[in-house]
Amino acid sequence: QVQLVESGGGLVQAGGSLRLSCAASGRVFGSDAMGWYRQAPGKQRSLVAAFTTGGNTNYADSVKGRFTISRDNAKNTVYLQMNSLKPEDTAVYYCNLQSIYSPYPYWGQGTQVTVSS
Fold first, then answer.
1. Cα separations in angstroms, 34 against 41, 72, 88, 96
2. For a surface tag, which of 73, 97, 103, 110 has the fewest beta carbons within 10 Å of its beta carbon?
């Protein structure tokens, strides 16, 4: 079993910055893919940024150059540094973990990010 605890969400003004953290506990492996997804009202959940099991990173086109995903394997924690935030970034952000040893992904509870104009 894996537990994901997110933190760092909040209200910021457009152009501001925010850093999200996701701490994983339980049966976590260095090979696990971890990343961030977001879901705005009326929209489907979509990828923001993620590490793959192969060590690559994937970013949504809309956040490239503004967001940076990083990982601290010693802490089993993944971060999302969000700069130059825009109102369209407003969403609930979810931490995700997919293990090669699990048939299904794990999700955090979500943390609200609101960007005001």
1. 23, 11, 23, 6
2. 103
Taking alpha carbons only, the member of 31, 50, 56, 40 closest to residue 107 is 50
d(Cα 51, Cα 32) in Å, to the nearest integer? 8
What is the C-alpha separation between 36 and 59, in angstroms, rounded? Answer: 10
Measured between alpha carbons, how far is 8 from 19 in angstroms, rounded to an integer?
6
User: Residue 21: what residue type?
Assistant: S
Tally of CB atoms within 10 A around 100? 9
Find the farthest-apart pair of alpha carbons in the chain and give their distance in angstroms, rounded. Answer: 43
Q: Distances from the Cα of 7 to the Cαs of 48, 53, 56, in angstroms?
A: 16, 23, 24
In the prediction, which pLDDT does 73 show?
Answer: 84
More confident residue, 85 or 100: 85
Residues in the chain: 117
Residue type, 80: L
Dig out the tokens for 13 from the structure. Answer: 């003004």
